[in-house]
Design a protein that fits this description.
This is Recombination mediator RecR. The chain has 206 residues and is α/β, with parallel strands linked by helices. The protein has two domains: 6-54, Orthogonal Bundle (Helicase, Ruva Protein, domain 3), CATH 1.10.8; 67-205, Dna Topoisomerase Vi A Subunit, Chain: A, domain 2 (3-Layer(aba) Sandwich), CATH 3.40.1360.10. 45% of the residues lie in helices and 13% in strands. It binds zinc ion. Residues 58, 60-61, 63, 70, 72-73 line the site of zinc ion.
Length: 206
């Protein structure tokens, strides 16, 4: 792409570093912002900067939160004996949208992926095991996508929890192999979590 302006080229380059945004889309977005009132751009960059500089993670479940303990963890009506293990906040949002789940979450921050250089130590697994040691958790629900990385991560955590009196299950029906949770519709995902199956059973099926 030949740009008549270095400023434009820089802005398009930065925009195109975002996932799913190619150079053409980046150019379209940047030109769109130029046509809008200047405060639109200011508001956007302010919001992103504020988020980046002051973002916090819940000290218990590691979900993105504006306060030390997130609303879900702080809610006394939630069942603290059931913990759903998810990759990131998008999964929490997807499951919360179903309105079917009343337990807590544990946000791993990713999946074990040797290809991408993500090991167990890069995720919040130690914190999950520490939580398990306290003896409050009775059931752990694995809700990672059924990709190789998701399965590896589930199995790693499952192994770490051997010897604890915790039942493990995995979300079931309707979530196809490789489907990302956030793309599942609410009813399907709601059913998947209500009809979860024991994790050991899911291993034998493979
Ligand atoms: Zn929390």
């Amino acid at each position: 792409m030949d740009f008549s302006s270095k400023l434009l080229e820089n802005a398009v380059y930065e925009m195109s570093q975002l996932p799913g945004i190619g150079k053409r889309t980046a150019l379209r977005l940047v030109l769109h912002l130029l046509k809008q009132p200047a405060e639109r751009t200011t508001n956007l960059s302010d919001a992103l900067q504020k988020l980046r500089n002051t973002v916090k993670f819940c000290s218990s479940c590691h979900n993105i939160s504006d306060v030390e303990t997130c609303e879900i963890c702080a809610n006394p009506k939630r069942d603290e004996t059931t913990v759903c293990v998810v990759e990131d906040i998008r999964d929490v949002m997807a499951i919360e949208n179903t309105g079917q789940y009343k337990g807590l979450y544990h946000v791993l921050g990713g999946k074990i992926s040797p290809m991408e250089g993500v090991g167990p130590q890069d995720l919040t697994i130690v914190s999950l095991v520490d939580k398990a040691k306290k003896g409050v958790i009775k059931e752990l629900i694995f809700a990672l996508s059924s990709t190789m990385e998701g399965d590896t991560t589930n199995f790693y955590i499952y192994k770490q929890l051997e010897g604890f009196d915790i039942s493990t299950s995995t979300i079931a029906r309707g979530i196809g192999v490789g489907d990302e949770l956030e793309y599942a519709d609410e009813i399907t995902l709601g059913r998947s979590i209500m009809n979860r199956i024991p994790f050991e059973g899911s291993l034998k099926m493979n």
